[in-house]
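Usage

Read records sequentially. Each one opens with the input sequence:
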Amino acid sequence: MPRLCCVFALCAAVVMPPVQAQAPPRTAAQQKPPAKPAPAQTPGRTTSSANPARASTAPASRVELELTGVTSLTSDTALARGRVERKTSASDLKLRAGYTLTSNKSYGKNARDLTTRTLLLDSRYALGQGSSFWTLTGATNMRMRSEASTRYPKKTGYLLFAAGRGTRLQQNLEGDIGLGLLTSYDVDGRETDPALTGRLLARYPLGQRLTFDSTATLMLPLGNGLRLDSDLTLNYRLTQELYLRLGWSANNLVVPVLGAGDWDTTTRISFLYRK
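and closes with the structure output:
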């Protein structure tokens, strides 16, 4: 009997396959397929997030609008000025324009109205990188009256076109010097001469709310004395975009009144919108 049991055990071992050990169940993380490799980038092309320098070279723009006005029984005055600046890494454009309308009224037997218009246009284009650059300048400051008289010339002012070389003297100060053509208008008519030109532009913060801006254009025409057209302003910030401006302008090209000197000066208080 024991021999018979051994025979049956041997036969079962030969016929039945061996039992293999089962592997432990796989977790969800192990069942995920392998991540695909990131596609290779084309040489010379990068994504916007990998190129933060592109945002720093975006053009910087500034827009200003200045308004003021006065009215009375004998005179009315309205002034509007605008300024546009656009700066990139390779160029800088500044455009300034202004228009003033004044109406003087007289009463009585010889009542009449005398209208005076003043046009200001100043443009400057600078091209170049670093502290030095080339400049192109076009400027005019013209005063026109509805009629001439013994004291008031009908048309006075100047027209300037120039090209030159400029430099950044400080962080907030620029200057340039160049050659151009200056056309002057006065009581004797029109005269055009070559001229040596120079310009200074400054913008300084004087506190958290106060800033100082200045533009000065010097002209030295052939055979005449030095000519100057300047504009100085103090700007007090009321809100993020609204300012109160105190401005002072002086030039010896726009003749105000015959026999009263060569300098024309204007002081103004106005509201300024800047964005």
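Summary fields computed downstream for this record:
- Residues 153 and 169 are 40 Å apart (CA to CA).
- The chain has one domain: 62-274.
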